[in-house]
Recover the amino acids of this structure.
C-alpha cells in the first residue's frame, strides 16, 4: 500500500513465530500518503488489516497530533499530521483519553490550529500501539510500509536477538547479509520495509 | 473462624486479641486502616513516635477464592506527608492474615531500648521475637532466610534498610508466592514500621480458613465476577503488556512528565515502552504475564530477566518505569530494571525515589540520563545511609529543599506520579485534593454512572469536572475497602455485571444485604474520615494545591498550564 518505487525496498523473510515481534516497529511510526482532509475513519478503512467493525469497536484510543479524538469523521490535515492508535487503556488517564468516554470532560482542551481547506496529498505518520499493532501489523508489514530508517535502526537495537531468526534479507531484489543491512540502514533516510514469512527452504 | 483484632504493644512488648467493634465490622482494607487510625491516633503526633499506630488490614474478601481479592492495606500517619495514609500491595500477606482470622493487626507504642524484633502471626495470636540476624539486610535476603528458617511457606511482610533508617520514602514489602516482592509503596510507612523496631512479620495461617456465609451464592457471584474481569479489553491489555502499556499512550498525549517535569514527551519512549519491554521479556525467557497473588485473573505483573536470562525484577510497573525512565531521562530498560531491583531490596518507594533523583539531576548532583549513576547512588548512598542517601531517601521534597530547587513536583510533600496534570487536568484535581498527597490511585476509574454517583452538573464546566473527580474518589475509596486489586476498577467496573457481582460476593461472604448505595456511602464516609484527620493534624485547603510551576510553566508540546483556581478546587469538599 505504501511501497513507493523511488525508495529502496528492504524485505525481511522471517520465521512465522517472529512476525508478531516485528509489529513493535510500528510504535515508531510509518509514513502513509493520503488526500488532505480525509476523514480519519476512511483513512484507516483503506489500510491493509483494518475493517470498519475493528475501527469502531477495538480501536478505543486515538490521538491526532497528540489530541485525543472521539469522532471518526475528524479530517486529517496539516503539514505533518501524526495519528496514533491504541486499544482501551487502563487507569484514570486511560479512561479520560478513551474515545467518547464518560470521563472525557477531564481532558485538557488544546486549542486547534487546523487549516480546513487544505488541498492535495499529505504524508501521515501513523503509529500503532499495543494490540492494535499485533492485530493489524502483520498485514501492513506484508504489504510493505514506508518508514524512517532511524525507526528501524532503533527497533533493531532494542530487539538484538531477532537477527538470529532472519532467514533471508533482500534489498531491491538482491540478497544481503545482516551486517550489510546494518551498514546500509545507517546511510538511509526513508525506506520501504516488507516483513513476511519465509517460505520453507 | 471469627474475625478478630490482633493488637501488639511494642512499648511493653505485649500482644492481645480483641473482638471487632461493631463500628468497624463493615470495613476492610483502606476503609478499616483509615477508620482505626482516625479513631486511635492523635492527629498531631509525630509519625515516627510512640503515639502513631501502624495498621495492617486485609480486604473484606481477602482469604477467599474471590478473584483478585488479595491486596493488603497498611495505614498510619505518614512521615512523608503528615496526613493519614494508606498503601496497599499484593503478595500473600492479605490472604494469610485473613486465614489467621485477623481483621486488623494494630501495632502501637515503641520499644524503650535499641533492640529489634519480628512478629509471628498465627490463628492463635501474635508472638514477639527479638531479631538480630536480619537487621541491616535487604528485603530479598530477609525473604530467603526467613522462608528457610520457618516451617511451611510463611507469608512475610518486611522492611529493608531504608525502613530501619526511617527514611520518609521507605516502603513495606510483601512476599509474593514466587519469593518476589510487592510493595506498599507510598508515604513512608516503612519508616513507621522501622520506628516500631519491627524488621519483619511472618504469617502462618496453618489450616485456617475464612468463613463464607453462603457458599453457593459466593461461587456463582465469583464466576460472574471473574468472567467480567477476564472478558474486559483492558484486562487483556494488562495481561499482555502490564501497566507499562501506558508509556506510549501518555507520551502521545504529551502528558509523560520528562526531565523533571519540563516536557510532556520523552524521545526515548519507544525504548522503555510496554511493547518493547514485552518483546525483551519474551526474548530473554522471562514471563510477560504473572500474578502477584494466587487468584488474580488479570496478571498484570511480569518477570523481567537480564541479558543472561537471570531474573532481575518482577512487578515492573508503569509508574516506576516512567519515574526512572522519562523523568530521569534514562532510556535503558536494563538500567531501570536494575534500579527497580535495588529499590525493592533497600525497601524504598519506586515512585518517590526516582522523582527525587530527577530533582537531584536538575540540581546537578548527577546528569540526566545517568542510569549507572543512579544505581551507584542507590547502592552506595541510600542503602548505606550517607548524607546524600538520606536526602534522596527523604523524597523529592527533601531533595528540593536541600538543593534549593524550585521545580519540585509534590503535593503535601508526596511526589506527583506519571501523568502531568497540565496535559490531563482531571488528574490534577485528584492530586490536589487527595487526602494522602499526590496519588494517581486515589481517583482510578470506576464508571461513576453505574455506581450511581454520576455527575449532576455539566461536566464541561470546571464545577462539573471537580464533581466528576470527587465521584471517582468516592467510588475508589469504596473499592479500596474490599481488598480488591484496584486494577479491577479500571478493568471491569464499567461492565454492568461486574459491580453487582462484587456486591454479591461481599453479601455472600458476610450474610449481609448491601446495595450499591451502601457502597457509595462507604466511600463518602472513608473520604470524610480521612479529611477530618488531616484537618485535625493542621491541614487546610491551602494544602490542596499543585506546586506553582504547574500554573506558570507551559508544558511542551501542547504548551498548556493547569488552570483550576484555589476556590474551584475547594468545591471538591462540598458534599
Ligand atoms: S492485576 Fe496485577 S496488581 Fe492486580 S492482583 Fe493481578 S497481578 Fe496483582
Amino acid at each position: 500500500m505504501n511501497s513507493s518505487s523511488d525508495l529502496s525496498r528492504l524485505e525481511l523473510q522471517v520465521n512465522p513465530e517472529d512476525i508478531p515481534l516485528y509489529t513493535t516497529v510500528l510504535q515508531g511510526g510509518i509514513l502513509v500518503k493520503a488526500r488532505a482532509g480525509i476523514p480519519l475513519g476512511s483513512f484507516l478503512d483503506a489500510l491493509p488489516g483494518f475493517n470498519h467493525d475493528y475501527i469502531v469497536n477495538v480501536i478505543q484510543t486515538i490521538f491526532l497530533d497528540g489530541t485525543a479524538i472521539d469522532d471518526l469523521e475528524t479530517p486529517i490535515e496539516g503539514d505533518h499530521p501524526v495519528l496514533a492508535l491504541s486499544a482501551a487503556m487502563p487507569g484514570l488517564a486511560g479512561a479520560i483519553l478513551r474515545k467518547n468516554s464518560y470521563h472525557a470532560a477531564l481532558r485538557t482542551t488544546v486549542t486547534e490550529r487546523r487549516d480546513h481547506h487544505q488541498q492535495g496529498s499529505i504524508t501521515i505518520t501513523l503509529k500503532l500501539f499495543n494490540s492494535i499493532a499485533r492485530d493489524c501489523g502483520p498485514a501492513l508489514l506484508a504489504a510493505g510500509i514506508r518508514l524512517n530508517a532511524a525507526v528501524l535502526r532503533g527497533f533493531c537495537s532494542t530487539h538484538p536477538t531477532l537477527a538470529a531468526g532472519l532467514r533471508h534479507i533482500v534489498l531491491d531484489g538482491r540478497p544481503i547479509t545482516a551486517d550489510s543491512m546494518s551498514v546500509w540502514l545507517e546511510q538511509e533516510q526513508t525506506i520501504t520495509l516488507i516483513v513476511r514469512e519465509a517460505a520453507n527452504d | 473462624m471469627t474475625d478478630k483484632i490482633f493488637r501488639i504493644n511494642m512499648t511493653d512488648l505485649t500482644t492481645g486479641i480483641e473482638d471487632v467493634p461493631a463500628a468497624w465490622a463493615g470495613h476492610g482494607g483502606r476503609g478499616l486502616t483509615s477508620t482505626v487510625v482516625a479513631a486511635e491516633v492523635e492527629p498531631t503526633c509525630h509519625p515516627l513516635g510512640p503515639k502513631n499506630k501502624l495498621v495492617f488490614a486485609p480486604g473484606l474478601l481477602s482469604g477467599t477464592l474471590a478473584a483478585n481479592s488479595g491486596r493488603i492495606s497498611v495505614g498510619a500517619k505518614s512521615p512523608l506527608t503528615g496526613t493519614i495514609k494508606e498503601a496497599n500491595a499484593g503478595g500473600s500477606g492479605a490472604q494469610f492474615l485473613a486465614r489467621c482470622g485477623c481483621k486488623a493487626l494494630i501495632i502501637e507504642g515503641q520499644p524503650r531500648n535499641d533492640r529489634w524484633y519480628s512478629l509471628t502471626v498465627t490463628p492463635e495470636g501474635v508472638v514477639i521475637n527479638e531479631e538480630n540476624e536480619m537487621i541491616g539486610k535487604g528485603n530479598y535476603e530477609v525473604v530467603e532466610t526467613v522462608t528457610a528458617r520457618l516451617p511451611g511457606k510463611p507469608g512475610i511482610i518486611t522492611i529493608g534498610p531504608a525502613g530501619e533508617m526511617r527514611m520518609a520514602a521507605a516502603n513495606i514489602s510483601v512476599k509474593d508466592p514466587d519469593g518476589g516482592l510487592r510493595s506498599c509503596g507510598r508515604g513512608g510507612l516503612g519508616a513507621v514500621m522501622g520506628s516500631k523496631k519491627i524488621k519483619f512479620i511472618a504469617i502462618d495461617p496453618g489450616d485456617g480458613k475464612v468463613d463464607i456465609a453462603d457458599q453457593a451464592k459466593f461461587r456463582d457471584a465469583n464466576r460472574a465476577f471473574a468472567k467480567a474481569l477476564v472478558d474486559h479489553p483492558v484486562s487483556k491489555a494488562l495481561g499482555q503488556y502490564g501497566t507499562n502499556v501506558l508509556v506510549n499512550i501518555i507520551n502521545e498525549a504529551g502528558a509523560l512528565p520528562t526531565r523533571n517535569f519540563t516536557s510532556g514527551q520523552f524521545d526515548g519512549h519507544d525504548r522503555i515502552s510496554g511493547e518493547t519491554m514485552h518483546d525483551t521479556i519474551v526474548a530473554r525467557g522471562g514471563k510477560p504475564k504473572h500474578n502477584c497473588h494466587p487468584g488474580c485473573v488479570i496478571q498484570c505483573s511480569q518477570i523481567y530477566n537480564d541479558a543472561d536470562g537471570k531474573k532481575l525484577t518482577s512487578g515492573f510497573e508503569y509508574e516506576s518505569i516512567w519515574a526512572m525512565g522519562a523523568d530521569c531521562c534514562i532510556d535503558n530498560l536494563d538500567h531501570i530494571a536494575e534500579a527497580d531491583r535495588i529499590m525493592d531490596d533497600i525497601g524504598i518507594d519506586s515512585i518517590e525515589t526516582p522523582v527525587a533523583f530527577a530533582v537531584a539531576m536538575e540540581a546537578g548532583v548527577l546528569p540526566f540520563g545517568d542510569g549507572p549513576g543512579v544505581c551507584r547512588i542507590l547502592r552506595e548512598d541510600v542503602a548505606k545511609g550517607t548524607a546524600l542517601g538520606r536526602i534522596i531517601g527523604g523524597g523529592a521534597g527533601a531533595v528540593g529543599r536541600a538543593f534549593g530547587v524550585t521545580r519540585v513536583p509534590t503535593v503535601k510533600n508526596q511526589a506527583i506520579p506519571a501523568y502531568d496534570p497540565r496535559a490531563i487536568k482531571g488528574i490534577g484535581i485528584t492530586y490536589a485534593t487527595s487526602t494522602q498527597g499526590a496519588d494517581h490511585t486515589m481517583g482510578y476509574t470506576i464508571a461513576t454512572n453505574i455506581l450511581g454517583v454520576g455527575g449532576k452538573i455539566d461536566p464541561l464546566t470546571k464545577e462539573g469536572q471537580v464533581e466528576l473527580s470527587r465521584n471517582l474518589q468516592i467510588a475508589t475509596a469504596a473499592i479500596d475497602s474490599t481488598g480488591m486489586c484496584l486494577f479491577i476498577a479500571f478493568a471491569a467496573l464499567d461492565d454492568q455485571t461486574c459491580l453487582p457481582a462484587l456486591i454479591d460476593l461481599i453479601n455472600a461472604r458476610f450474610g449481609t444485604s448491601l446495595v450499591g448505595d451502601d457502597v457509595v456511602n462507604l466511600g463518602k464516609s472513608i473520604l470524610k474520615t480521612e479529611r477530618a484527620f488531616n484537618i485535625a493534624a493542621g491541614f487546610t485547603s491551602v494544602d490542596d494545591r499543585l506546586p506553582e510551576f504547574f500554573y506558570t510553566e507551559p508544558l511542551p508540546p501542547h504548551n498548556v498550564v493547569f488552570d483550576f483556581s484555589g476556590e474551584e478546587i475547594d468545591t471538591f469538599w462540598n458534599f
Residues 9-197 of chain A form one domain. The CA atoms of residues 120 and 161 of chain A lie 42 Å apart. The two ends of chain A are 28 Å apart (CA to CA). The mean pLDDT of chain A is 92.
